[in-house]
């Protein structure tokens, strides 16, 4: 089993001394939403996945979990084993009561077999696919593009239900439009949507139900694992996953996808849409080893609609996204008045109840803080006849509204157009029924940042994902525009399909190298000097134009990790170069393209909601000491590769020692190797290898938030802080430990300590493994654990590990 070290110990005896007055506004807001379980809403209480030691198939999972006579079954009367896996995942899923603590599950599994870990089942938001005239309008018939897959869950499936209803239908039909949109990007047959890989044989494994009770669709890791194993058994060459949630590479879905890659299947996965929350927001399964994680760049073209802002001083036409609920078009005849919505928190975000009368008006609301669903529901309750959501950063947005109670049209517009409308409202501006995108070719504001929790580069590549026009179900209007790394993922998956068609013997690693080494770094419009940070969103993939066959000749997946010599940190890595031309020699030249540096902390050490960018958000000038320096001595002495020659060269990277270590910068860039073949003119080919590093001692970073935030803190279940050093708790009236993580943590332990400093064991929910950092949204701002009369004696088990 894997042995992990504890990063910190949270003792209850010390928490009662916290000053209530020191609690920040953000924390106070989050405390009002404190729940019985972790505030990260993608965790399902009472659901666990147990992973056993060894590779899939090396352990008799059924003997451990499935047999009524097994020692596991005998010691776990409170458990119900649900699904068992042995093809891509070595373990099983378990259901139990909400009050159950995973430490008991771990102890029980250890007595029966070799336990790797017990993980909570993660809920993911996405959708499945649907028949469409431009998607063949067929299912598993002769000549049909759809030959693989089935429905695993049915329309009524909701993993949050006490007993989820699973009634698979005959076809994997789409309820939200997301899956149909994704499928069109891969294989749309035209005439309106031309897919990247029209000739691909397609499969679809439905893992999402339909929206109900006003909530969006979700699924769970146990279903995703089952679908991945089914796709593998059916012979899938490429698996495209437009879903995910912030997690570690050790998350169950990431482990499964890593095992798929080991077995030769190319796995392409969305990196996530949590860019507004800064670093460490890359999601699983995209962060899995060997998985091609995909970020998003905005479209160059306007694929939405247009609206006229009518004012006494003149009219202005602006671009709008297509209505997020396409069956309710954004059309007003005669023109409808627009009003800036103000909620009960005196904010234009629409995240609280809106008391103003919006009857017959279009509500103008700014993006941020809460979900699109919440904003629209509040506006509709105030009588709004439509909603316009304007971005909080440069660029357009396509808001996704999945709440089935919404019956009014919802569109998105850019920040600049939103500000224009706000300034025009004094003129009684109105909307009636495009223009080019102002951020075309730039990284999408929603695209998640790296690194992964294990400090791997993520995403590995980016592709068009902002404002993408594709197919949607017929009852939703046939076509529509959506935004997300979900859209960039099928674009990349289609490119992989074309690459495998051209080079069917390429391995997973070779396909990764072709795409990554041939992609183009994107310029950073914010700084105007360097290129986008490596950990921000990487670079965009283009269709490959290969001069030589095969077209890659640089072997490296990225340079990560650094050594230290006094005050200068440096690293040396080996990169393989090969001249694949068997007749002509090649001259190799090298250059280093420096990317902007990123930090999730302000200069005073406080957490930065929006990551700082060097040099744009820092004082000082750029120079050799503030930029990473790279040297390749081998190419200075001999830069010729003979026909067919392969050579390993050492690359020396020096960290930017002129930057303050206290600022905690992540830096990086791109190694550019350019080959020119003898006797050829204007045929140089460049290959790119990314690198990244951390400027400081990462092991010394504080895991918990700054004390100025007033955390950790004890509250009751209503979020009211507990004062004093004495308090009473019961199983029905527990005290709640609230804390924040600013960096991901392998282990979080919350223990009860008596006045003699003796540990009494873990509190409920007080032992967590592979924990993401907290994001900035109210529902994910804090982690919580409960202090009750029940304390789990897990110390002996943990120390035995």
TrEMBL record:
Alphabetically ordered keywords of this record: Cell wall, Hydrolase, Protease, Secreted, Serine protease, Signal
GO cellular component, one term: extracellular space
Residues of the signal peptide: 1-22
PA domain sequence ranges: 342-420
Keyword Protease set for record: yes
SUPFAM superfamilies membership: PA domain, Subtilisin-like
Classification via InterPro entries: PA_dom_sf, PA_domain, Peptidase_S8/S53_dom, Peptidase_S8/S53_dom_sf, Peptidase_S8_His-AS, Peptidase_S8_Ser-AS, Peptidase_S8_subtilisin-like, Peptidase_S8_subtilisin-rel
Residues in Peptidase S8/S53 domain copies: 163-525
GO BP annotations, alphabetical order: proteolysis
One Pfam family cited in the UniProt record for this chain: Peptidase_S8
One example GO MF annotation: serine-type endopeptidase activity
Domain of life: Eukaryota
Family: Belongs to the peptidase S8 family.
Protein name stated in the entry: Subtilisin-like protein
Organism: Linderina pennispora
